């Protein structure tokens, strides 16, 4: 059976099952997606979380969408500024054979007043190999829904294998020397871990100051320039601390914080989400020290994969992280209006691509 939930009160009985389907990935959990909706949705947005239950009323699939009436779009919760990676359709691996997702697509393309207003479905920065999303894609396109897809930035992760020693053995001699030197330099700093919410209340102002100072020093306004970002991150951290999923620390030198890192844990994976460094200490390379600290100490937390998430910054390649491409998918309805929207998006993309080619040739 399918139903659409539009309020947090309606979601209450399903939160534990939602967490189960999320598989420990924080960006899929209610602790991430509901704070996002509270802080970043606008007046024209409404929760549109579709759930599928079996004959005994147990939750078997969940599609965490919201409806933006201003653009007449169904979108995955968590999109935009906060860069929620690995979001998607959640399903029970031990039960689902695709039938429930077929019912979901039937519902989305039906004439029900619940969904009849949408003109586009927008999936941002998704893994194109995601099983559930591929099923949704096949079902929608087989029903003649128009698909416009673009490549987004990669996600980047380091497979530590058996730990720090295994990692060092896997890189070149020059890289090994560099990493060992930075590991030695960690002896010059002190590490303060965030273990509870009181620690986090002391940590957050440090992260904000270091992040903003560094970003502004290179001409970027920084995430916290958006007044919604701080309360969002604070609310997320509160929920994930309670579930032992927060991985946050500061590095100190001469009684001053020189780097701050906040990330999240998912079983054997450490997601490195946000950072800040003191631009007055650049000669000590605080960002590189923090990254090597994460790689060196991940093993003692039972971490195998260190995930630096979305974005093609050069430092991720220098850390020997492996890229995984992600894509944006925009579906339009299988009708004349949908075809026109698809044509407009495709034409606009071609013009942008041509303009970039011209600029490169001129340069």
Whole-number total of structural domains: 2
Q: Name the helicity range.
A: 25-40%
Instruction: State the CATH architecture of the largest domain.
Output: 3-Layer(aba) Sandwich
Strand content: 25-35%
CATH superfamily of the largest domain: Gcn5-related N-acetyltransferase (GNAT)
Distance between the termini: 58 Å
Q: What's the oligomerization state?
A: single chain
| Name of the level-1 CATH class of the largest domain | Alpha Beta
Q: Number of helical runs?
A: 12
Helix-strand pattern: EHHHEEEEHEHEEHHEHHEEEHEHEEH
> Which of globular, elongated, flat, extended, rod-shaped describes the shape?
globular
Low-confidence stretches: none
Number of strands: 15
Largest sheet: 8 strands, mixed
Radius of gyration: 22 Å
- Summing up helix and strand content along with how strands pair, one would put the structural category as alpha+beta
| CATH topology label of the largest domain | Aminopeptidase
Average of pLDDT:
92
Commentary on this structure:
- The chain has 363 residues and is an alpha+beta fold.
- The chain has two domains: 2-152 and 325-362, 3-Layer(aba) Sandwich (Aminopeptidase), CATH 3.40.630; 163-299, Aminopeptidase (3-Layer(aba) Sandwich).
- It is 40% helix and 26% strand.
- The chain contains twelve helices and 15 strands.
- The protein has helices at residues 8-11, 15-22, 30-40, 99-109, 131-142, 164-170, 173-185, 197-217, 229-242, 286-297, 314-318, 336-362, and strands spanning 2-5, 45-53, 59-68, 73-76, 90-91, 120-126, 146-151, 155-159, 190-193, 246-253, 256-266, 269-277, 305-310, 322-324, 327-332.
- The strands form two sheets. Strands 1, 2, 3, 4, 5, 6, 7 and 15 form an eight-stranded mixed sheet that branches. It has a seven-stranded mixed sheet with strand order 9-10-11-12-13-8-14.
- Strand 11 (256-266) and strand 12 form a beta hairpin.
- Helix 3 runs antiparallel to helix 9 and helix 4 (99-109) crosses helix 5 (131-142).
- The radius of gyration is 22 Å and the shape is globular.
């Amino acid at each position: 059976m399918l139903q659409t939930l539009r309020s947090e009160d309606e979601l209450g009985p399903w939160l534990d099952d939602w967490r189960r389907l999320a598989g420990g990935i924080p960006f899929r959990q209610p602790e991430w997606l509901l704070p996002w909706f509270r802080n970043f949705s606008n007046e024209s947005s409404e929760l549109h979380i579709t759930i599928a239950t079996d004959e005994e009323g147990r939750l078997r699939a969940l599609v965490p969408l919201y409806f933006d009436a201003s653009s007449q779009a169904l979108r995955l919760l968590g999109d935009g500024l906060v860069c929620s990676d690995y979001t998607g359709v959640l399903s029970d691996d031990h039960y689902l054979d695709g039938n429930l997702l077929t019912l979901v697509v039937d519902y989305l393309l039906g004439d029900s007043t619940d969904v009849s207003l949408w003109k586009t479905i927008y999936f941002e920065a998704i893994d194109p190999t995601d099983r559930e999303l591929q099923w949704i894609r096949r079902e929608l396109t087989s029903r003649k829904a128009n698909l416009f897809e673009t490549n987004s930035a990669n996600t980047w992760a380091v497979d530590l294998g058996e730990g720090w020693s295994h990692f060092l053995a896997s890189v070149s001699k020059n890289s090994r020397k560099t990493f060992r030197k930075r590991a030695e330099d960690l002896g010059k700093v002190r590490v303060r871990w965030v273990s509870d919410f009181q620690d986090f209340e002391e940590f957050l102002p440090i992260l904000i100051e270091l992040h903003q100072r560094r970003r502004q020093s290179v001409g970027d306004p920084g995430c916290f320039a958006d007044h919604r970002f701080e309360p969002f991150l604070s609310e997320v951290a509160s929920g994930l601390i309670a579930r032992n999923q927060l991985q946050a620390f500061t590095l100190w030198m001469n009684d001053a914080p020189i780097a701050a890192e906040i990330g999240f844990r998912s079983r054997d994976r450490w997601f490195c989400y946000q950072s800040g460094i003191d631009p007055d200490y650049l000669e000590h390379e605080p960002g590189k020290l923090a990254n090597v600290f994460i790689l060196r100490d991940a093993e003692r937390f039972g971490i195998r994969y260190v995930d630096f998430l979305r974005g093609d910054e050069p430092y991720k390649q220098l850390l020997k992280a492996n890229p995984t491409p992600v894509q944006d998918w925009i579906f339009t309805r299988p009708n004349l209006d949908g075809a026109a929207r698809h044509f407009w998006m495709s034409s606009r993309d071609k013009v942008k691509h041509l303009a970039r080619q011209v600029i490169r040739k001129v340069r």
